[in-house]
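User: For a benchmark we're assembling, each entry needs the component sequences followed by a predicted structure for the full assembly. Here are entry 17's components. Please fill in the structure.
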Amino acid sequence: MMASTQADTRVNGPARAVHSPAGLSLGLGRLFLRYPILSRVVSLGLFFLAWEIAGRVPISYAFPTFFDTAYAFGTMIADGSLISAYGSTLQPLVIGIAISGVVGIVLGIVMGLSRMAEWLVAPLFIVLQSAPMAALIPLITFVYGIGLAAKTLAVIMLALPVIVLNGYKAVRNANPSLVAMCYSFQGTRLQQITKVIIPDASPVIFAGLRLGLAAGFIGVILAELLITPTGIGDLITYHRSVANYAEMYAAVVSIILVSTVTLAALEAFEVRVLRPEKRRG
Amino acid sequence: MTLFGYRVPMMASLIVWCILWELVGQSGAMFLVPPLSSVLAAAVTMVQTQTWQAAALITLHSFVVGMAFAIVVGVTLGVLMGRFKAVDDLFGIWVNIFVSAPLSALVPVLMILFGMGETTVVVTVFLFAVWIIVLDTRAGIRHVPNSLIEMGRSYGASTFALYSKIVLLAALPEILAGIRLGLVRGVKGVVIGQLLVSIIGYGELFELYSRSFDMENFWALTIILFAAAMLMSAAIEHIEKKVDYYAGVR
Amino acid sequence: MTMSDAVFNIEKDVPADAVVEVRGICKKYGEVEALRNIDLDFPRGKLTTLLGPSGCGKTTLLKIIAGLIEPSAGEVRVNGRPVTGPGPERAFVFQDFALMPWATVMRNVAFGLELKGMGKAERQSIAAKYIAEVGLSGFEDKYPHELSGGMRQRVGLARAFAVNAEVLLLDEPFSAVDEQNRRKFQEDLLRLVEKERKTFIFVTHSIEEAVYVSDRIVLLSRRPGRVSQIIEPKIDRTASPDAIRRDQGYLDTVEEIWQGLKHYVD
Ligand SMILES: Nc1ncnc2c1ncn2[C@@H]1O[C@H](COP(=O)(O)OP(=O)(O)OP(=O)(O)O)[C@@H](O)[C@H]1O
Ligand SMILES: [Mg+2]
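Assistant: Structure for entry 17:
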């Protein structure tokens, strides 16, 4: 598998198109452009209608209607419990993603540039990326207890591998034709890296960040459900234990909403800042 | 990488990491990390126990059932979304939301809807795996050149033949890629589901060993799990390579 | 020199003012022998074309001259100095354009100067001049994906002009350009050759194109590539493009080259 990622050194013809490793899996920003307003409204409306009907039937004693859930959502915002829960959920997420982002991108770039680093580190992260890291979350408590550090570590454990691997693949597959072009104009190695390789790799690196953030959301919620009863995870557990199902559903929907909006915003930012050519295209 | 003129296979560096693990374990610096050798020894004893075999079986069962549903539903929905705009409009937004949503938050909901048992784990596997399969299948179907479909029509293929003999086969590289990603996600789903349900299969054992600070067995479980996940992903990749040759010439 | 079968061996009658001298170049890719013992001189201020069957090593030779790949044996000298890598006196125009998709036309054209550390205002004014020269005025702030294939290659050409190299190396610059644009482009190229007074080394697949634009045509044999023939089309370039394409000398040269190459195509 790794052998195929060696740089394409053939002298002739256009560079092989890079199959971005994360190309298909995340398209939230485009989602809001691709699907016309009407179909989005219809699609959302039908879903909520189905939910409302299913809740009215009801399909289960633990299945509140859409309006009950929306009402619970309102009250939880009003009484501040949702806001304070997000405070404690988002803090480790932001710290964890910041750390994974910096470490992961640097590590990925180094691996993409150096054969030695690639050989040593890439297989490790390939294993970590395709293995269920969640299994290790229960261990965190033994060292870091149940505080902020434990949750941050859970985020890092899930987010780091995908960020590292995307950075690495992006740099390794940087368009060889552009690299040759830079070399032919006597660009130094440093110029080659900063002016060609990293800009060329940045969309895939950024896609890695988005995938990392998505994994980080999973990690932080999992940590809150499993080891540290705080934040949104605790809100879910608590309302479940007292059979406030509407409140519980509201908390679940809200975290899905928050993660969707965050990821979409990140993608919009990417298109705006990193890829000016996409804005008008 | 090449060392003294010899090509050293990439995955060989894992041996370096294993040795490092062994050394850290031997030094006893971290009680969380027992030496790799004793973990492996524990793994060998563990796989012979009834408990482990039962747990592995139930885990495998949930995984297979969940994945089967995910593949059938995912490919079907993906094909429909790829071919019909109305279906695409209706489901596109949801598929895109759920493919990257924190599904771990949904598991508690599943637990009250489906009970604290295997069904919940099956549904978790399904939910983790299905969306990426839908997206990749849809992309594959979109890639099928129109000329290929027109060719089929002009030779009088029935709709069924058109789909089973042309469209699905032409989209196979993407569908397989989707299934591979789905499998990786499915493994994560089965682990997360069982950890949260925590009274069945692997989740129960993880809970048991971490509660009792039995690190050898804990890591033995983890290693077996990781190895299984890697092997499966490698196997699919192998199949993928076999069909990939025609991805370029479609 | 191994050119016993050359029809017009101009090395004999033209005083050697060669910018680029290729001496005994061989290139092997592992088992594959791409080039064998190439000796060539490229006269200053002329457009020389490398023509030959597919896979005979034209791109390889051009990239060796550019200093982008190392020969297995032999030496290339530019203005008498041996080539060890890319240099400021040579500029390469890439077959696949090699434009940076995230950069505007302006930044792409000025990129060679940017790498040299030239200030922004200065390099942009130079770039603007060459953008105008290749006929892209008004497109300075566009991105490559907004341009047609022909326009993209003009950007690549302007970028090579902007660094003011003596020798321009062009690898099938028109192969990704449609036929109408290609003709227009060939005419523009002739005008630029006239105006810029630079040495051009040009790789193409097309016999007509080679005869139309070249002062000299080097025919390479099938792999391993060797120099099989050097032809100097005798064409009156002051005539209009259409007149040239109907000119008897033009047609005869095309025919002659075709006869020479025909046996390579089975
Ligand atoms: N990096 C490489 N590794 C191995 N073989 C190569 C490599 N680059 C080129 N070759 C081989 O060397 C020979 C010459 O290649 P080259 O690209 O120079 O030919 P060319 O004349 O430019 O061909 P074309 O007309 O198709 O562009 C070809 O047979 C090609 O397959
Ligand atoms: Mg070539």
